[in-house]
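Key result, reporting period 2: structure in, sequence out.
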């Protein structure tokens, strides 16, 4: 067994959560076994999620309750990508934020001041405190010159009762009034993929993106130069794949079918054909 390619870089995995590892609070078939293979083989991996509401400790606890034990460092969220982007663009900036604990925690970690007093940015993420007064304030601040940021473009998020509005839907009224389109930091933005890989120190050529959505996971991985694995346990069905102008490298019925030892990166598949 080897976890490395010919150039010495280890295979590594970025793994979406909802629709890949779990559906709500239920594990998807093969998920536990796949994670155990990653841990047993020493493969670097991250669970990468567009949801900015939860913190890594909360996500760790959520998976532990479902029977998968990993470290806090095995999670990377769109909130983390947003905070990293702001620190890179404008260190010690300020922001007016409509978002949950996960987003607020990451911004504070990166020394970003949360304020409604002439902020540099307005940032929108998943939240359970989305009221008209806050929408008005965000609108005013953007029209007064604040830059518009959102954690991810997802229109809906999954719940036990069905889909609910996610970040992409929450920005819609502000976008329509201001005429400004936010800059989305989550998947499919390759920047999130870059910072996630940097978080665990791995190279794109040997990194696999595992997801259930062609329009975020797969296109984001493709644009970031990674090998893409679509699983059919979430949003995208096999029949839907041909509707897209791009293709995943692999299609699996579920994540349990992925053998980290045997799977080849796009680059190594090309090398074997030469």
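The corresponding designed sequence is given below.
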């Amino acid at each position: 067994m080897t976890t490395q390619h010919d150039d010495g870089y280890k295979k590594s995995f970025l793994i979406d959560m909802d629709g890949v590892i779990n559906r709500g609070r239920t594990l998807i078939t093969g998920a536990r076994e796949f994670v155990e293979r990653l841990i047993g083989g020493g493969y670097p991996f991250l669970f990468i999620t567009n949801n900015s509401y939860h913190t890594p400790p909360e996500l760790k606890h959520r998976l532990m309750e479902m029977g998968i034990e990993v470290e806090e460092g095995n999670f990377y969220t769109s909130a983390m990508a947003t905070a990293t982007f702001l620190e890179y663009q404008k260190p010690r900036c300020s922001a007016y934020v409509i978002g949950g604990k996960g987003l607020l925690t990451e911004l504070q970690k990166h020394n970003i001041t949360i304020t409604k007093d002439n902020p540099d940015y307005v940032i929108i993420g998943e939240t359970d405190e989305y009221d008209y007064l806050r929408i008005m304030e965000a609108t005013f601040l953007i029209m007064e010159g604040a830059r518009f940021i959102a954690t991810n473009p997802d229109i809906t998020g999954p719940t036990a009762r069905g889909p609910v509005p996610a970040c992409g839907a929450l920005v819609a009224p502000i976008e329509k009034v201001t005429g400004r389109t936010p800059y989305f930091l989550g998947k499919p933005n390759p920047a999130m993929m870059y910072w996630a890989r940097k978080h665990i120190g791995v190279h794109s050529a040997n990194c696999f993106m595992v997801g259930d959505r062609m329009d975020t996971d797969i296109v984001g991985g493709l644009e970031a130069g990674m090998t893409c694995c679509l699983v059919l346990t979430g949003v995208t069905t096999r029949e839907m794949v041909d509707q897209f102008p791009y293709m995943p490298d692999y299609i699996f019925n579920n994540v349990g079918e992925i053998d980290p030892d045997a799977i080849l990166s796009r680059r190594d598949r090309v090398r074997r054909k030469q």
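The chain has one domain: 13-25+49-202+223-231+258-274. The CA atoms of residues 156 and 165 lie 5 Å apart. This case is discussed further under Risks and Mitigation.
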